[in-house]
Amino acid sequence: MHICMDWRSVKFDWNKARAFLVTAEEGSLSAAARALGMAQPTLGRQVDGLEQELDIVLFERVGRGLKLTPSGLELLDHVRAMGDAASKVSLTAMGQSQSIDGSICIAASETYASLVLPPIIAKLRRLEPGITVEVVASNSPSDLRRREADIAIRNFRPTEPDLIAKKIRDIPARLYASPEYLDRIGRPKLPYDLRNADFINLDSTGMLMNGLNTMGMSLTKKNFPVLAENYNVMWEMVKQGVGIGILDGTIGDVEPLVERVLPDLEPLMFPIWLVAHRELNTSRRIRMVFDLLAAELA
Amino acid sequence: MHICMDWRSVKFDWNKARAFLVTAEEGSLSAAARALGMAQPTLGRQVDGLEQELDIVLFERVGRGLKLTPSGLELLDHVRAMGDAASKVSLTAMGQSQSIDGSICIAASETYASLVLPPIIAKLRRLEPGITVEVVASNSPSDLRRREADIAIRNFRPTEPDLIAKKIRDIPARLYASPEYLDRIGRPKLPYDLRNADFINLDSTGMLMNGLNTMGMSLTKKNFPVLAENYNVMWEMVKQGVGIGILDGTIGDVEPLVERVLPDLEPLMFPIWLVAHRELNTSRRIRMVFDLLAAELA
DNA sequence: TCCAATCCATGCAGATATGCATATCAAACT
DNA sequence: AGTTTGATATGCATATCTGCATGGATTGGA
């Protein structure tokens, strides 16, 4: 029989530690309050309280913002570890939950979120009215580690080992431009004819350029004079004749303001992956939505 | 510039997680409440709240106690990780604290706590009235990992790498018995004369027996018919003639009710170690007490 | 230099959680 | 079977925390 443990070292207010963590990570009390859905004074008082409780100065009040003191930086490492563990707690809890009702969060690119998801979500709501859905439309691949979403639709195979992923199918991506723009560059007939055309870039890495070059073009960086940070912006630019854009053929073909560039060119195939946390696989609700998405997207 | 993180997975009440952790580790709400210095209904409600928040049944209410459900067991791993990180937070916070005033906890064996520490603590209080002292008198080596104490006085070199230890000096331990008992067994003159004597054992391992056998005796388990769980009990038994006990010579020699067994025998030397957490080395308060103890015990 | 924006600090009313006392319950012991 | 012990739940007064509204301070730009 072991002597009753002393929990002196865990007696401090863990919520205050959380307040400190989010404040430090977000950079300000206000941002942390927004991220946590709390009021800014509350967070401020919690951080103050932690400082008093631990008898340490965590932040230097400098001007309009806060700056971590060396001591605070020292603590932040361990508080981060608490946060990571807390994430795992929340995740496995979600996975253990066997009730079908509840909230679920789906991340997808903006085009998918606005054009493909709505009918699927309508069907989901019909099938399971107890499930409330939240859609995060984000161009950058959503950070599932921090649980920006429960399920994500991605265009590449995820590498993180904590995730389970299912490849749904390949999407044919085609090049589109406005009729005016095509007239201006002389109605190209061969990939080679595009050597001086302007493309709207979507990411700062060369992924798009490399993909196009494998199809017989020889493009360089000067062919991508415009960088759009999101799909809707890119698509607007294409419609208004700024240049050539690439998009899912099933979406682009129904847009009357644009037409295909090189209509008979083989489409560039890119995959659709459905991604979720491994732990969430055991949750009835997540499973249900995951399977529905897989079926409807196929 | 990274997109504002979503902290959905850390939004749950961390204090409720702490309540769950301590309850699961201690085995009952009441025990957890005692350990945390809170009321039992509070902890019960916190655990209930966590169950509702995560939509999981953590404990099975069975009879007078609680039993972890499989889901709860699953979560416990990660909550334990949170607790370990929390310990580190508290520890480094203590280490970063540069104020001399505050509380400190010293662990020592019962004899040391009652006979050696008082004058040192009196001196400490005179030097630094802002420091409040707590003494934990425990026979079993205190668990510094869980912060039963900030500084411990031990009789062996600690093996844990997280601890810093300083060897103070070697203590001469001698054998004592009451005059009546010595008369009864015939006033032994040589170690060999003790082959049939009764010794008061202090630990269930054979440490004491082995130490004595290296000094020329040949004792077996039957020479240790009595096991005392603490030093004071052992010493009382020695004074009342139950058998032979071993104690620090500087303490035993001043007790009028006993006398040395084999007065000229070489004393059994055992070391005094002062032990503290590595992180606490940077705390002014801990440093000060540590150094004072080292100086006074030498 | 002034203005606007943004952020942290404070006061106060209402919501929430806590602790005490107590009821209730199950298991072990006589 | 009755009693004792040690456990979990409940009611209520109180203490604490939270959020809203507001004030004060600083930065960046017109």
Brief account:
The structure is a homodimer of 298-residue chains. The first copy, chain A, is built from ten helices and eleven strands. The first copy, chain A, is an alpha/beta fold.
Structural features:
homodimer; 298 residues; alpha/beta; Arc Repressor Mutant, subunit A; D-Maltodextrin-Binding Protein, domain 2; 3 domains; 7-stranded mixed beta sheet; two-stranded antiparallel ribbon; 20% strand; globular; DNA-binding
What would you say the CATH architecture of the largest domain in chain A is? 3-Layer(aba) Sandwich
Which percent bin holds the helix content of chain A?
Answer: 40-55%
Strand content of chain A: 15-25%
Shape of chain A: globular
CATH topology of the largest domain in chain A: D-Maltodextrin-Binding Protein, domain 2
Provide the succession of SSEs of chain A: HHHEEHEHEEEHEHEHEHEEH
Radius of gyration of chain A: 25 Å
Mean pLDDT of chain A: 86
Number of discrete helical segments of chain A = 10
The structural domain count of chain A equals: 3
Low-confidence stretches of chain A: none
What order do the helices and strands come in, and which of them pair?
The structure is a homodimer of 298-residue chains.
Chain A: H1 14-26, H2 29-36, H3 40-54, E1 59-62, E2 65-68, H4 70-96, E3 102-108, H5 110-127, E4 131-137, E5 151-154, E6 163-177, H6 179-184, E7 200-201, H7 207-213, E8 226-227, H8 231-239, E9 245-248, H9 249-252, E10 259-260, E11 268-277, H10 284-297
Parallel strand pairs in A: 3-4, 3-5, 7-8
Antiparallel strand pairs in A: 1-2, 5-11, 6-9, 6-10, 6-11
Helix pairs in contact in A: 1-2, 1-3, 1-4, 2-3
Chain B binds a DNA duplex (30 and 30 nucleotides) through residues 28-30, 38-42, 44-46, 61-66.
